[in-house]
Amino acid sequence: MVSGSLTEALLSLPNTSESYKRATQHPFLQRAGTLSLSTDSLQRWLTQDRLYALVGYSAFLGTLIAKLPAPIVGPSSSEGILHRRRLSVLAGAMANIDREVGFFEQVAKDNGLDLAAKSKPTAAQNEVDSHPQTSPGSSLVDLGLLNNITRGYIDFMVSTASRGTFEEGLVLLWAMEKMYLDAWTYASKHLKSEALSSKANQQPGPAKALLQLIPNWSSAEFAQFVKDIGELIDGLDVKIDSDLGKRLQEVWIVTLWYEERFWQAGE
Q1: CA 139, CA 202: separation in Å to the nearest integer?
Q2: Cα–Cα distance, 266 to 206 (Å, whole number)
Q3: DSSP letters for 41-65
Q4: What InterPro entries does the record tag this protein with (predicted)?
Q5: Which CATH number fits domain 6-266: 3.40.140.10, 3.10.180.10, 1.10.12.10, 1.20.910.10?
Q6: Which tens digit of pLDDT belongs to each residue from 224-242?
Q7: Based on CB atoms within 10 Å of each CB, which residue in 36, 40, 70, 93 is the most buried?
Q8: Distance between CA atoms of 28 and 267, rounded to whole angstroms?
Q9: Between the CA of residue 103 and those of 36, 79, 212, 221, 249, what are the distances in Å?
């Protein structure tokens, strides 16, 4: 990121550094990195993350792709090149989420984890209904396995993609992926090299699952994907203090709110 970029401005918003730290350095992540999560904790969190991806992320991304500005120009024009670049990144994100859900399900199956595990009630679950960015009367009337935080997050994602601008949706995509990458990179720093080298000898269970999950979510390939989205954002002609820039700030702040609380599914 170059100095003065839009992504840098979002990352350095006043009064958000502690929220970012809580969202990306949650105790759940430290326990994940030290392989000390219980089966119950990991499968409750994985249940919510799978539903977030399968129910929310895919719907959000489909709507965002549909809103992608498509100039009627030749392929060598600057507008045509930008459109192809955006489409390539977003289409890649959709392919990634399909693979990711399959990966979740295979890792869970191999390690005896239940992806239909009910969440325990937490204080954060009661906060979501009063949050200003939660849609009144969720469209997901029968929550099923969804806890309130996941439901609220999905509502926010879908609402942003459908009612907001393309730019707001793109910032939401980057915010979610950037925080996820930083969170699991933090977890990876607690992962001892000898644990990775002995992965093949691990018995199926939460520790072996984490030895598969953490490297996937902190990989160089994932980091490049996040960088690619960030470059699209930095290419937007938006000033951080403009009306649209202020809406982008709000998207960032609300995403922080949900990301911080999402880890509580594993408590």
Answers
A1: 42
A2: 12
A3: HHHHHHHHHHHIIIIIIHHHHHHHH
A4: Haem_Oase-like_multi-hlx (IPR016084), Polyketide-peptide_reg (IPR053261)
A5: 1.20.910.10
A6: 999 999 999 999 999 999 9
A7: 93
A8: 8
A9: 21, 36, 10, 16, 32
